[in-house]
Amino acid sequence: MQPSENVVATGERLSRRMDEPSGVIPVGMELTQIYNQPIEVDKSVRGFVVSVGQAVAIVIIVLIDEIDQQIEEGKEGFSAILDATVSRPRPVMLAAATTVLGLMPLLHFIAHALPDIPPMEPARIPGL
């Protein structure tokens, strides 16, 4: 594999090559892949993108709710947006921090009890 080569494309080529000899293998034998890194990389990237999308959606929902509350209190539209933007980052950051701290025991468990877990899985925890 070349340094700048697409890992997912390489995995697809590998899968096709693994399927080629299936017709000539003697009865009772089978050819299996032990670990397919390109598929794992693809799943990890997709999981990361989904996690980022969920985090952005949550922040947007919290901000819209705060803007609505500010407008109900009688503030003008633009000033409600500014006040909501200034007042909501602290609770959002505290929620994220408590989530990360709450998952630290899981990270310890993954690192010590399950060494076969792909390295990208523990990296998702601080990514929250």
What is this structure, in a nutshell?
This protein is mainly alpha-helical.
Number of strands: 0
Query: Kindly state the mean pLDDT as a whole number?
Result: 75
Alpha plus pi helix count:
5
Question: Rg from C-alpha positions?
Answer: 23 Å
How much of the sequence lies in strands comes to under 5%
Q: SS-based structural class?
A: mainly alpha
Structurally, how many domains make up the residues? 1
The oligomeric state of the chains shown is single chain
Question: For the terminal residues, how far apart are their CA atoms?
Answer: 32 Å
What would you note in describing this structure?
Helices cover 73% and strands 0% of the residues. It has one domain (35-127). It is elongated, with a radius of gyration of 23 Å. The model has no long low-confidence stretch (mean pLDDT 75). With 128 residues, it is mostly helical. The chain is built from 5 helices and no strands. The longest helix has 36 residues, at 37-72. The chain starts with 6 loop residues before the first helix and ends with a helix. α4 runs antiparallel to α5 (120-127). The protein has helices at residues 7-19, 37-72, 77-87, 89-113, 120-127.
Fold topology:
Layout: H1 7-19, H2 37-72, H3 77-87, H4 89-113, H5 120-127
Helix pairs in contact: 1-2, 2-3, 2-5, 4-5
